[in-house]
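Design job #97: recover the sequence.
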C-alpha cells in the first residue's frame, strides 16, 4: 500500500513574517492527517525557518532544487550535503520551470537525484510533456526519454535511489499554473505508463514507488484525481500558498486513502 504524499511547492513566493503564520497554521491544520504524508518545498532562504517551525510536527519539508556539484567554485549553488545538514527531507528535481528558465535537463536532473540520495534526501523527480509535445501526441515518448535518463544508471545507483523512496511527479507542463488540470483518466493512463516503464527495471519497486500528479491541483479537482488508483498524491503549486486550500487538498487525499484501503 503506497502512502499518498502531498507536497506544496511554494516556488518564488514567501516573506519571513507571512511564512511563519502560513507554516504554523498549516502544521496545525494537518496535524491529525495520518493517512497522507504532507510536505513543503520552500525557497532556500526559508529552509531554516521551516526547520525551526516544523520540528516535532509530522510534516516533511525541503528544497526546490539541489546542485549537481558536491563542493567548490560553483557560485550560488547549494549542495545536497548542505540541505542534509539542515535536515531537509525532500528536494524537487527537474521541475519544468527549471527546465524552461535554466539549462536543466534530464541528464543533469539525474545527477542531482544521485546527490540527493547520497545525502539521504528523498528526490521528487518531475517529468512531463509540453503543450506542443502533448498536441503532437508524443507525451509518452517524452516521458519515456525523461525516465530513461534515470533508468540508464548503473544497478547500484538505482538500488540506492529506489531504496530511498524516489518519488516521481508527473507534471504535464501545459497544466502547470494554467488552472487547467489534466483530466483524471488521462493522468491515470500516464501514471500507469510510468509505472510500467519503472517495472521494466524492477517490478517490486515499480509497485511501491509513489507517482504524484502536479498541474493546477485544486480543491475542485483533488477528489477526482486522488480517486485514480495510480495517483499517489500531488505536487501543488499555487494552491499550496493558501493554508485552507492546501490543508483541504491534504484532507481529501486522506479520505481517499481510507476509501482505497477498504477496496
Ligand atoms: P500549480 O504548480 O499547482 O500552480 O499548477 C504545480 C507545480 O509546478 O508543481
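Job complete. Output follows.
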Amino acid at each position: 500500500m503506497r502512502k499518498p504524499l502531498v507536497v506544496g511547492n511554494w516556488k518564488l513566493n514567501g516573506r519571513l513574517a507571512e511564512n511563519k503564520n502560513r507554516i504554523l497554521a498549516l502544521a496545525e491544520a494537518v496535524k491529525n492527517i495520518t493517512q497522507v504524508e504532507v510536505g513543503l518545498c520552500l525557497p532556500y532562504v526559508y529552509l531554516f525557518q521551516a526547520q525551526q517551525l516544523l520540528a516535532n510536527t509530522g510534516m516533511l519539508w525541503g528544497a526546490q532544487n539541489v546542485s549537481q556539484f558536491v563542493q567548490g567554485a560553483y557560485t550560488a549553488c547549494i549542495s545536497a550535503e548542505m540541505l542534509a545538514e539542515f535536515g531537509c527531507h525532500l528536494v524537487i528535481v527537474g521541475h519544468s520551470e527549471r527546465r524552461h528558465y535554466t539549462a536543466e535537463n534530464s541528464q543533469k536532473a539525474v545527477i542531482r537525484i544521485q546527490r540527493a540520495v547520497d545525502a539521504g534526501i528523498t528526490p521528487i523527480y518531475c517529468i512531463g510533456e509540453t503543450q506542443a509535445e502533448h498536441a503532437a501526441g508524443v507525451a509518452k515518448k517524452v516521458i519515456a526519454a525523461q525516465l530513461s535518463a534515470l533508468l540508464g544508471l548503473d544497478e547500484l545507483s538505482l538500488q540506492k535511489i529506489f531504496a530511498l523512496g524516489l518519488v516521481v511527479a508527473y507534471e504535464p507542463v501545459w497544466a502547470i499554473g494554467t488552472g487547467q488540470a489534466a483530466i483524471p483518466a488521462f493522468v491515470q493512463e500516464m501514471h500507469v505508463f510510468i509505472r510500467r516503464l519503472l517495472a521494466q527495471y524492477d517490478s517490486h519497486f515499480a509497485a511501491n514507488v509513489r507517482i504524484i500528479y502536479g498541474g493546477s491541483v485544486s480543491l475542485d479537482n483533488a477528489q477526482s484525481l486522488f480517486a485514480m488508483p495510480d495517483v499517489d498524491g500531488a505536487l501543488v503549486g499555487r494552491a499550496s500558498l493558501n493554508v485552507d486550500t492546501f490543508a483541504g487538498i491534504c484532507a481529501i487525499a486522506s479520505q481517499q486513502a481510507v476509501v482505497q484501503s477498504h477496496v
